[in-house]
Design brief:
The N and C termini lie far apart (about 115 Å). The longest helix is centred in the middle third of the chain and has 34 residues. By secondary structure, the chain is an alpha+beta fold. It has three domains: about 170 residues, no CATH class; about 240 residues, no CATH class; about 110 residues, Immunoglobulin-like, CATH 2.60.40. Helix content is about 35%, strand content about 25%. α9 runs antiparallel to α11, α9 runs parallel beside α12 and α9 runs parallel beside α13. Strands 11, 12, 14, 15, 16, 17, 18 and 19 form an eight-stranded mixed sheet that branches. Strands 1-2-3-4 form a four-stranded antiparallel sheet. Strands 6-5-7-8 form a four-stranded mixed sheet.
């Protein structure tokens, strides 16, 4: 009877305080902080044990690889109780022995309390994660020695304030300072933190017994597999929170498929463990069955190296999208091609120029293999099913054949957008995914009056320097077309200036236009006593050469093209302004 056990209990005080720190949330380190045995760890990993209280810490994981974490564990013990051998001999529970519902009896309990303080910090893209982790670790370890000023303010330097939120950090510090008092006041509410077990077979030969225990090496292998899955989950979490994943629907769709099949596999693997672990312990199955489960995993597409490869590729795609959208910052990103139509058909907009990612929609062979693998459910039969993964050609974001053209297009688009910024509300520049197998990677699409006019639009770019020939009062320029786009004629603006005058005030300019994209252009009737500048655009950069010893000519050319955006005449020609920063002196 319980009353008899209580009378003869060996009870003694056992006060002790323990303080530990950890910068890891790995299964191994979490179990170590809680002093979990290998056998209990196997049961937890297999989902056979439901944790509560401070042990819920075992389920507290970082959700993203961008998180930095430090855990402080404060443990305190109060008393120790144990049964004597005399009391053990009096245990007679026929139903327990006959029904074989238990294998061990609790013979001793150590009471106390445990507190886990978990400090998380998400690292920004421009921060050094290792440095943040180091500073956070130092901050948490300083908690036991930190002082609080008389007005309750916390002494923190600027770097510490940057890494830690002073408000929540102050709350944690105040709680830590109060813990000894709080735990002492509630000593009677202390809970078992450690128990000692005694086999029932030592009391009754007919009692149920543990036929065999899971080997430490197999427990370690299970732990490694689950840790690899946990690491993959964190990397997915970081990508799922990225701007690129939220901006482009095709990327988000692939990440969602991965998350769904990954979660389903994790459940299947743990269910297989939960079925086989009790069977091994009861003697109904051998440990080879557990080895079979581990072998099935090692041959599956969910094995660590295959997960890592796909996650790295997905991160590479996200990095490229992030890099290009950052280069084109200020230009709106439309998440799908459907949203492009809302801009194209806007009655207030005549022209839309779209930097298009043309290869975002594709069939992912790895994701297809994951889905097929789950349908086979190998863990049910414990029989490996071969699943092939067709790697195919390099992904668009890893294909060197596409990268050069993509870089060229993004620079052309950026220059074109900058040149036309704020000129009219009728022109819109956007970024969007528009599938086009004929222009893999990225291209520039031109829409006019609700229709796509060019799916590989090439704005004019900076032309080569003109060559110069001086004859008396005439300057003959040998012109060269822009390497991209269609140049249909040139416009030259000029005026007489004083030496050192850039002409940026925009006054007294004269201009002339060629009738076509002719190879030569002659400026005539120039006064040798004057200094001339020719320039186009509000902030010109000057290309200079000498007409005569007493007269410098500063020449700036503006190539024009059929498909740019500023109307120049009734025939539909358009003007595009370019600025040349490569000054050179010709004599």
């Amino acid at each position: 009877h319980l009353s008899e056990l209580v009378l003869d209990l060996d009870v003694r005080r056992q006060p002790n305080t323990d303080l530990k720190f950890s910068a890891s949330d790995s299964l191994s380190d979490q179990a170590s902080l809680l002093d979990v045995s290998a056998s209990l760890k196997a049961s937890f990993l297999g989902g056979l044990v439901e944790v509560g209280g401070s042990a819920k810490y075992l389920n507290d994981k970082k959700s993203s690889a961008n998180q930095s974490r430090v855990t402080m564990h404060y443990g305190q013990t109060t008393k120790f109780e144990q049964l004597t051998m005399t009391q053990l001999g009096k245990i007679t529970y026929p139903r327990v022995f006959d029904d074989k519902t238990a294998t061990h009896v609790v013979t001793a309990v150590l009471y106390g309390s445990q507190v886990f303080m978990v400090f998380d910090r998400t690292t920004a893209d421009n921060e050094d994660k290792q440095e943040v982790e180091g500073t956070l670790h130092v901050m948490v370890k300083k908690i036991p020695s930190f002082s609080i000023e008389g007005d309750g303010a916390l002494k923190m330097n600027e770097k510490e304030k940057k890494v830690s939120n002073p408000t929540t950090y102050m709350e944690a510090l105040q709680l830590y300072k109060k813990l000894p008092t709080l735990l002492k006041q509630r000593e009677n509410d202390a809970v078992p933190v450690s128990v000692w077990l005694y086999p029932l077979t030592q009391l009754n030969d007919g009692a149920a017994k543990m036929e065999r225990e899971i080997s430490t090496s197999l427990v370690s292998k299970i732990e490694n597999v689950l840790q690899e899955l946990e690491d993959a989950k964190k990397k997915y979490g970081a990508m799922d929170r990225s701007n690129a994943a939220n901006r482009f629907q095709d990327v988000r769709k692939r990440l969602k498929i991965f998350h769904n099949v990954f979660t389903e596999y994790e459940v299947m693997f743990k269910k297989a463990l939960s079925r086989i672990l009790p069977a091994i312990r009861s003697g109904e199955a051998t440990q080879t069955k557990l080895s079979d489960i581990l072998n099935i995993h090692s041959r599956s597409p969910f094995v660590a190296n295959k997960l890592e490869e796909w996650l790295e590729n997905a991160q590479g795609e996200i990095n490229l999208l992030s890099s290009y959208t950052a280069e084109l910052s200020g230009i709106p990103v439309l998440p799908s091609s459907v949203q492009v139509n809302s801009v194209v058909f806007d009655p207030r907009v005549d022209t839309v120029v779209c930097f298009s990612f043309t290869s975002l929609k594709y069939e992912d062979p790895y994701l297809s293999s994951l889905t097929k693998y789950l349908a086979a459910d190998e863990f049910e039969m414990l029989t490996p099913v071969p699943i092939s993964i067709d790697q195919g050609s390099p992904a668009w974001f890893n294909n060197p054949d596409f990268s050069e053209k993509m870089k060229e297009n993004v620079l052309l688009f950026k220059s074109f957008a900058d040149a036309n910024k704020g000129k009219t509300e009728q022109i819109r520049f956007v970024i969007a995914p528009v599938s086009d197998s004929s222009n893999p990677g990225a291209s520039i699409c031109l829409y006019r009056n609700g229709q796509m006019k060019d799916n590989n639009f090439q704005p004019v770019s900076k032309p080569p320097k003109p060559s110069v020939n001086i004859q008396n009062r005439d300057v003959i320029l040998k012109l060269q077309k822009s390497p991209t786009g269609e140049t249909i004629r040139y416009r030259v603006e000029y005026r007489a200036t004083q030496p050192g005058d850039s002409g940026a005030d925009g006054k007294n300019w004269e201009f002339t236009e060629t009738t076509d994209a002719q190879e030569t252009f002659t400026l005539t009737g120039l006064n040798l006593a004057n200094h001339y500048s020719t320039v186009s655009g509000p902030t010109p950069m000057v290309l200079s050469y000498t007409v005569h010893k007493e007269c410098d000519m500063h020449c700036y050319l503006t190539p024009c093209q059929q498909s740019s955006l500023h109307p120049l005449n009734r025939n539909g020609a358009f003007e595009y302004v370019y600025f040349d920063g490569h000054g050179g002196l010709f004599k």
